[in-house]
Amino acid sequence: MSHPLPEDVDPTGQDLRAFTDVLRPQHVAVRNVRGEYVFLRHADVRAIALDDATFSSAVSAHLQIPNGLDGAEHTAYRKALDAFLTPAALEPYHAAFERIAAALASELPAHVAIDAVTDIGAVFAVRAQSAWLGWPTALEAPLVAWVARNHEATRSGNRTDMVAVADEFDTLINGLLDARRGPNGAVIGDDVTAELMRTEVDGRPLREEEIVSVLRNWTGGDLGSIALCVGVLLYHLAQDAPLAARLREGVPDAEWDAVINEILRIDDPFVSNRRITTCPVSVGGVALPEGARVKLNWTSANRDEAVFGDPDAFEPEGNAQHNLVYGIGRHACPGELLATLELRIALRAILAATTSITLGEETSMREVSPVGGWSDVQVILA
């Protein structure tokens, strides 16, 4: 049986968590003003993500390596690129991340309101990612400013602004690549960026546009995402003093990671991914034609009452197996380990440097479509 869908649903200016909390109990999916089928429930989002043959990730007119690839091609690129993101590959960077987090925590002013997203999250994300990739510290201020401009362009939906911001980032990346080329064109240096430039897929070196795409994927999206995650996490800890106290006392890494993932499930800033159908298919009683544009709304799926009961209930152990913060299937986020590591180290340093975290008197501001989480979280550290 095919279910009629609400048409021309417009999320513009809406807090997507609150917006989808209203839609999800009533509707399997909706069609938005762009004609996309937006799936809201956990079972359907999970099923679509696991069926990468029917639901292709080749949705963009722009090169997206590896997330815009399918099948064997996607597998080959993931095999080459995931080597940079294994526990063994990341282990040498733990100490650097810890030094960066401790230094930032010591710099933060006490007893005055600061923005957890911009003043803490964005700064830490830029410093940590730059240390991992071997980028110079002189890029910190331009990159922090770029994160803010990128959020603003994404929030506005203005295509001209979004293209301009993307081009700005690509220009920055191209400069970093040029700095790693010797007079004869050979790659010089041994940092992650240089090693990426030497990486081969199926026996051939990555082309320059592929390298730029990978670095855009690793940084352009992740810098903003880490900033948003820090905002969500500190907002939660500011309202749960017992949890913050327990974490300050010291818990194993596994418990830290479970706490982080559960807070992000409750308020998932990784809102959605796109797919396109390769043939007619029905999902949750919704009939989709071939070529249908589909959105998997992770924020909504992670709050599905049919799976989690009260979506705001904090239950790290009970909810872990159903948590879709980093996706599922072959296209699950390859940066999950790096993101979780950075967030754990950042939060641990902030808690170690403080005795309390409270919300400022000024009201924190939610992000609006198509961005999730908080745009501004005023916290007071003491």
CATH topology: Cytochrome p450
The proportion of residues in beta strands is 5-15%
Question: Overall 3D geometry?
Answer: globular
| Sequence of strands across the biggest β-sheet | 1-2-10-7-3
Count of the separate structural domains: 1
Q: How would you name the oligomeric state of the polypeptide chains in this document?
A: single chain
Which range best describes the helical content: under 10%, 10-25%, 25-40%, 40-55%, 55-70% or over 70%?
A: 40-55%
Extended strand count: 14
CATH homologous superfamily designation = Cytochrome P450
Order of helices and strands: HEEHEHHHEHHHHEEHHHEEEEHHHHEEEE
User: Helical element count?
Assistant: 16
Please tell me about this protein's structure:
The protein has helices at 16-23, 42-50, 71-82, 87-90, 94-107, 116-133, 140-156, 159-178, 192-198, 208-239, 241-249, 253-266, 298-301, 305-308, 316-319, 336-352, and strands at residues 29-31, 37-39, 55-56, 113-115, 200-201, 204-205, 272-277, 281-283, 286-288, 293-297, 357-359, 365-366, 374-376, 378-381. The protein has one domain (16-381): Cytochrome p450, CATH 1.10.630.10. Helix 7 (140-156) packs antiparallel against helix 8 and helix 8 (159-178) packs across helix 10. The protein is of the alpha+beta class and 382 residues long. The strands form five sheets. It has a five-stranded mixed sheet with strand order 1-2-10-7-3. It is globular and about 55 Å long.
